[in-house]
Amino acid sequence: MARSSAPSRERIVAGAADMISRRGLNATSIRELAKHAKAPLGSTYHYFPEGKGQLATEAVQYAGAAVSRILRDSLDAGPAAGLRAFLDVWRGIVVESDFRAGCPVLAVSVEEPLDGIPPALTAAAEAFEDWERLLTQSLRAHGADTEQAPGLAALVVAAVEGAIAMCRAQRSTRALDQVAQQLEAVINGAVGRSA
Amino acid sequence: MARSSAPSRERIVAGAADMISRRGLNATSIRELAKHAKAPLGSTYHYFPEGKGQLATEAVQYAGAAVSRILRDSLDAGPAAGLRAFLDVWRGIVVESDFRAGCPVLAVSVEEPLDGIPPALTAAAEAFEDWERLLTQSLRAHGADTEQAPGLAALVVAAVEGAIAMCRAQRSTRALDQVAQQLEAVINGAVGRSA
After folding, report:
1. Do A188 and B186 contact (CB within 8 A), yes or no?
2. Which of A32, A100, B149, B161 has the fewest beta carbons under 10 Å from its own?
3. How many domains is chain B built from?
4. What is the pLDDT of residue A182?
5. Do A106 and B162 touch (CB under 8 A)?
6. Is residue B141 situated within a structural domain?
């Protein structure tokens, strides 16, 4: 039985994901990740004996899986519903953080690995691929051209991720709102529904 | 007369832009920016007496203006030609750096400002807006709906920026290639040309 005062493994991972989405990985120490999750450094090393790389990898996997779950739940109602849920996650994070937080998968992706291919970067690639695969499946299931579906799924993920960055720089949700409207029209066209 | 061995102001700015696109801003010191540009720290402080923030701001402005110039030159031939030139810049940087470098404007945008709104973040917002404005003008000039053009321009910038991040994580140009094809079809549809 865990004591209720002890930080859970998941709380540390979730805190690290938030911190990485704000500050990036290279600029953040494991001490700062632990502090941001309100976890003692000892507990953090207890759960993540390999240190920052291990925690960062799990944080990216955690964020990737959380978004995949939201996509899976919403895509049953069609790719446009999945798109809206995907956008709502990020709009919520960006707005609630006053444009200071964003996507930890994106944050890790735009940092040069210092040596080799770190597991956190591999986890980021896998998160993008998972989101693309879920969108592709839903597009195909709802009537989109089989060949065209993967490209459209990549467009959705890329445009939403890029818009997160634009919103943070511009301190406005305009880019996410515009991208939402454009992507919904493209998806409706691809599944044969008029906008 | 500058001695030919002295690093030019522009070379330091260009080197800083490259370094920021690789490592981000928070994780990079002015010493590292100078070293990456093969400039003595003294010359760097001579040109940028306010330090890292000043150099970073000029680096983001430099990258933004360089891309704006490429867009302006290519968009005369139409928005699809502009899109191709925009994509070619980033594909070249991503591939030539073996997926280690990307877009300095994007890198600055996904980092939480440590206090206030730093000028480098404002410069990033302005770079995105400038690219969007150039694309909007070209879309309108080539027959796109006046109301729809700004949204489509935002989609282009967001999707290309997001695809840069996906390519770096996935160590593949697939996302940029897919986004290129999708965006060209959307643009051709908007300006009334069949793909």
Report:
1. no
2. A32
3. 1
4. 98
5. yes
6. yes
Interface pTM, i.e. ipTM = 0.95
Q: Give domain status of residue B74, yes or no.
A: yes
Domain hosting B71: range is 60-190
Confirm whether B53 is domain-assigned: no
DSSP state of A50: T
Q: What CATH number has the domain bearing residue B182?
A: 1.10.357.10
Q: Find the length of chain B.
A: 195
Q: Which of A110, A125, A178 is facing B154, going by the closest CB pair? A: A178
Of A102, A109, A151, the CB nearest to B182: A151
Interchain CB contacts (distance < 8 Å): A and B: 169
pLDDT tens-digit series, residues B14-31: 999 999 999 999 889 999
Position B23, amino acid: R
Whole-number Å distance between alpha carbons of B49 and B55: 9
* Tokens, residue A86: 């995907």
Q: What is the pLDDT of residues B81-137, one digit of tens each?
A: 999 999 999 999 999 999 999 999 999 999 998 878 899 999 999 999 999 999 999
Using an 8 Å Cβ cutoff, are A120 and A53 in contact? yes
Whether residues A178 and B24 touch (CB distance < 8 A) is answered with no
Asked if the Cβ–Cβ distance from A162 to B166 is below 8 Å, we say: no
State how far residue B3 is from chain A, nearest Cα, in angstroms. Answer: 33
Residue B120, in any domain of the structure:
yes
Long-range contacts at A42-50 (CB < 8 A, ≥ 24 apart): A43/A6, A43/A7, A43/A12, A44/A12, A47/A9, A47/A12, A48/A12
**A111–B24 C-beta distance less than 8 A:** yes
Interior CA angle at A161 toward A109 and B90, to 5°?
65
Chain B neighbors of A168, CB-CB under 8 A: 109-110
- Tell me the per-residue pLDDT of B32-68, one tens digit each, with 9 for 90 and over: 999 999 999 999 999 999 999 999 999 999 999 999 9
Please name which of A101, A89, A70 lies closest in space to residue A176, comparing C-alpha atoms. Answer: A89
Of B18, B32, B93, B109, which to mutate for an interface test with A (greatest number of A Cβ within 10 Å)? B109
Report the residue of A98, A100, A155, A172 to disrupt the B interface, i.e. the one with the largest count of B CBs within 10 Å. Answer: A155
